């Protein structure tokens, strides 16, 4: 092999390592999850009575809306190999702030803005501890998970506030006129497009993958790793605050213990959607399909009369299977690349 | 290379197959557990009732579910119990929504919050589900009927009856209550005092002690009462924590069998004290009867026999006939008295 670049040879080398285009598009983890989602929907439509009703879609979207919302920033955070475990506590805190605000006589939109600001501040505390203090996000957000939840429960005690203006609580359960689609899907779609463009079509998004794959290399190529992460946690806090307002109005109930355990459902859905917990890999369409898959599966199973503990077992098995298959595929890929390398090495040796 | 590709494809197939299998087994288990009568859900004339307690795995609600199940099998309908593992209002909402989707005839629910599940219940009612609360009510406008386990008058009356009977209708008694500002406890105690003054002139209520619904405090307050009043003949504790703590003190003291103890307790807490003679009888409602009555009331709503209007009457199997009272509520009746003869029948 000469020093000049042999384009024909180069292309052949590349195609030996890569899959053909159709396979790269069709046989990805994202397409597998989307396929699985369609399969579950089709099977449930035929096998579960009452599943194919408009009411199912309405209730399903309403129930998973907070998960869908928070999964967006969570995806970006996990791609940079960090994690935010405090999101559900921020939802609880924002819920309490909304409740206390309304109780104090604020108009609801004002209380909501304050609640979202509180969520944003909470997120920036996470971001500052991770970025400027340099602590691992796992440790930081386990701490703030307890801290924010503690403040939320402390502010309201074990009581609940439920006298919200009917106009707003009705709005959260309204459908887009003429469809069974809840109106609350609209802000999600807007946010999904914003996050999708940010992640997949901007240098900022590419820098997230670079950070997740190799933080040092990313830093050397001019990416401000710390500041990037800081803004991700701020976004996560703001979106969680927004989800908290929505959660409060949907259930007409501001409580300190609202959304307890939601963080695990969000992270499970993100991982199921093909985002690697080791960073650097994942796409938003897969994550959205992952959230829909878990939601649809549990909705269908509940309709079929399966008890919640068995639903948890099935979701757990699905999640473990998806993580195991991801590792297995990664292992196969390294084996395959090594095998190609050996074959090429032998071929070149015999040429020479 | 081909073999490698095929392996990868195989993994994907296997994953899809596994999930499909899970989905199918989920559905298959539904078919076998529900029997044939609920298939399709279009036969809305059938009595199909879903019971949603505060949480699952709670012996009190297991007992009430048992009662409801018995009633539904007498009526000849289908019955299902669903519920969250932890008693939180938001987790009840998804089960209410599922019941609405399934188009069940009636939903019997013990509310974790009087307000939070209201909108979900309203939605269920708007698609034709009859909603009956039991044990713990929602706001009256969110349900068709509330099955009330006991009234304050009934609770006060049964405790006075029990203690006066046990001490021979004369002598000193004391009350061991929960906290000094517990609304329900204070209302009962006031009614008990009025009843004692009116019908039991030889019984003297010497002190109302407060154990704060704390086991140790109640235990210590029992000791103090017995030392302060050597002539004390009986203690009434209208709280499940207080009565159990007082019984534990009496059991190991010289007063066992000498000083009578009664009040409100659960059979599982009080079993050993009833069996060894520390306590003769105590009261609470019977959760099995409560569930049984709720199921009959729900069936009556589904069939259109009643609408929940005041004065409506319906038949509740072995419990007899009931009338709907004010605020669309039905009273189960007098509290149930547990003693050595019947305590073995209960587990909650």
From TrEMBL, chain A:
Q: Does the keyword Manganese apply?
A: no
One GO cellular component, as annotated:
plasma membrane
Q: GO: which molecular function terms?
A: transmembrane transporter activity
- Descriptive protein name: Autoinducer 2 import system permease protein LsrD
Q: Which gene encodes it?
A: rhaQ
Report the CDD domains cross-referenced here: TM_PBP1_transp_AraH_like
Q: How does it sit in the membrane?
A: Multi-pass membrane protein
Q: Which domain of life is it from?
A: Bacteria
